[in-house]
Amino acid sequence: MEPIRTKPVLVEWLKSQQRDANPFKFRVVDIREGNPPTPELIDFLSEEYIVANISPKALKIALSKLKDDCGELNLQKFQEFVEGNLTGEEKISTLVGSFGEIISTIYLVQFEKYWLPVYKLRYREKKNWAMRMTDVFVVNTEDIKKPIVSYGEVKTNTSGYKGNIGVEGHDSIKRDNALENPDILRFIINTLCDQNKEDEASFFIEIQLKMANYEIKHKLFLVHDTKFWKDEILENLDACELDSALQDFTVYAVLIDNLKTVIDESFKNSWREAEVIANGK
C-alpha cells in the first residue's frame, strides 16, 4: 500500500494563500476548497481516520478472527470493531475533532514539507481524551539551514457561529517544548530506530545530546464550515493579549463547505478502508 501521506489528494482539494494585507498581530493563511470533494478524497480521509486511531496489525488480527472456516468475513462485526475504535462516548465531538487534527497535520506535510516523527503520537489513551502533546507535532528538515519543529492547536466547528473559537484555540495551545521531556524524546528515537529510520532519528538524537539548533513555531488551525465563518473571529483573537511564549504564531483559516457531510462520509467509509489496510492492499 502506498504511504498515505505521499498521496497529493489534499493538494488537489485545497488551495492556500497567505494574507498579504494583514492587519492582525499574527500571520494568517487562508485555506479554501479549490475543487469539490471527490470519492478519492473521501477514501483518503477514511484511510487517515484508520491510521490515526488503529494499528494495522490490530486490524489484521481482528480480520482473521472474524472470518469463518470458509474464509468469509463477518462484515457487521468488523464494521462495529472499526467504528468502535474511532469514536468515544462523545461520538460526534470525537469525530469532528479528529478530522480537524488529521487534515491540519496532512496540510503541513503536503503543503509545507513537514514530516511526522512518529505517527502514533497522535493516538489517544482513551478515544474521548485529548491527544498527548499538542494536536499537531511536525518537523521540517528539508532543504533549510535550521530545522523547524512546529506545535499546533486545532479547533474544528461544524455548527453555528462561535466568535471566540480563535481565542479558545490560542488559550489552549500547550507552550512547553515537548522535546524537553526525556520520555517523549526517548520514545521518538526508539520508535524511529525500530522502523529503520536512522536519518529521521538522527535529528532527535542530536536534541538528546544537546547538539541540535532548531526553530520552534506555533500554529493555530481553525477548521470551519464556510457558512459559519466571520473574520470577526480573527478580530476577536487580535484584540486579546497574545502569549509571549508563542513563537512565529500563525493562524490557518480552513473553510470547507458542508464540513459535517465530509466528516460523516469519511467516517461511514472508514471500515471499508480498514479492510483494505488489513488485507495489505
Give the CA-based shape.
globular
Provide the gyration radius in Å: 19 Å
- The number of domains is 1
Helix percent band:
40-55%
Head-to-tail CA distance between termini: 5 Å
Number of continuous helical runs: 11
What does the largest sheet look like?
A: 6 strands, mixed
The residue ranges in which pLDDT falls below 50 over 5 or more consecutive positions are 127-131
Strand content: 15-25%
- The sequence of SSEs as H and E is HEEHHHHEEHHHEHEHH
Structure classification: alpha/beta
Please give the number of β-strands.
6
Sequence-ordered SSE layout with sheet pairings:
Blueprint: H1 9-13, E1 14-18, E2 27-33, H2 39-53, H3 56-65, H4 75-86, H5 91-112, E3 136-140, E4 148-157, H6 165-172, H7 182-194, H8 198-208, E5 215-225, H9 232-239, E6 250-256, H10 259-268, H11 270-278
Parallel strand pairs: 2-6, 4-5, 5-6
Antiparallel strand pairs: 1-2, 3-4
Helix pairs in contact: 2-5, 2-10, 2-11, 3-11, 4-11, 6-9, 7-8
Q: Any overview of this molecule?
A:
The protein has 281 residues and is an alpha/beta fold. It has one domain (4-278). Helix content is 44%, strand content 16%. It contains 11 helices and 6 strands. It has helices at 9-13, 39-53, 56-65, 75-86, 91-112, 165-172, 182-194, 198-208, 232-239, 259-268, 270-278; strands at residues 14-18, 27-33, 136-140, 148-157, 215-225, 250-256. It has a 6-stranded mixed beta sheet with strand order 1-2-6-5-4-3. The longest helix has 22 residues, at 91-112. The protein is globular. The model is unreliable at 127-131 (pLDDT under 50).
